[in-house]
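Morning. Coffee machine broken again, so started the prediction first thing and wrote up yesterday's gels while waiting. Chain of 280 residues, entered below exactly as on the submission form.
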Amino acid sequence: MTADPSAGPGVPAVPTVTDVGKLEATLRAARDDGRKLLVPYATGGLPGWERVVEAVADAGADAVEVGIPFSDPVMDGPTIQRASERALEAGATPQGIVGDLGRLDTGGIPLVVMTYYNTVHRTGHERFAASLAAAGVAGAIVPDLPLEEVGPWAAAADAAGVETVLLAAPTASDERLARICARSRGWVYGVGLLGVTGERAALARSALDIAARLKAVTDKPVLVGVGVSDAAQAAEVAAVADGVIVGSALVRRLLDGGGAEAAAAFVAELRTGLDRADAG
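Came back before lunch.
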């Protein structure tokens, strides 16, 4: 491991490019080939979710984010909240979702879970990290665990080979962004706007601003999510960032009755938009 002066006190050393994990290595390789990165989000436990994950992986995703439903999802807007409620009503559990992830065929596309710290804490850091690793999950996002408190979980995740993706808010100072980038693994998640997840009619200016600020302080893949709703918005933000995360717009299609085929069609549309913009 190599030290990084941007890490600040108490922040672990930053891995060199040669010892990054599978998730970051996969995204770096795609980016270095000139590809804009696409990470769709699906709610785990929503009936039919397993086929949705496999379908979007095949439709052009570079990684797939799978949400583990939680009863108090502070980052999630109404669409993903409804999906989480439906999943919980269907009997979804963290252990069940993680176990099912290990049986999916994504053709080598990395999987990342998104959950809240209560789930991690109740399971235990080492146990939860080990369960993700055993299922072949490459990364984890724990949005309510701030940089100052991420150490014990991140250390357990690092030891298990699970990459902890950290979120970077548009209100953060440049110094804080540098420390977030130093500790983040896999990619750095730029939060496109203040507030919860959800579809927006237009891309927020803050999405472009956070992308540019992060790109100025890190060589890790920078992906922007929250408020990215369609192919045009994805292409707009990816002109500055390395790629995008799209969740609510996909989940809404599932709640409206669309299944794996509808999800794949939407992701293919996003992929085409990103590729055309990149080519242009």
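Residues 1-18, 195-202 have pLDDT under 50 and may be disordered. Going to sketch it on the whiteboard this afternoon.
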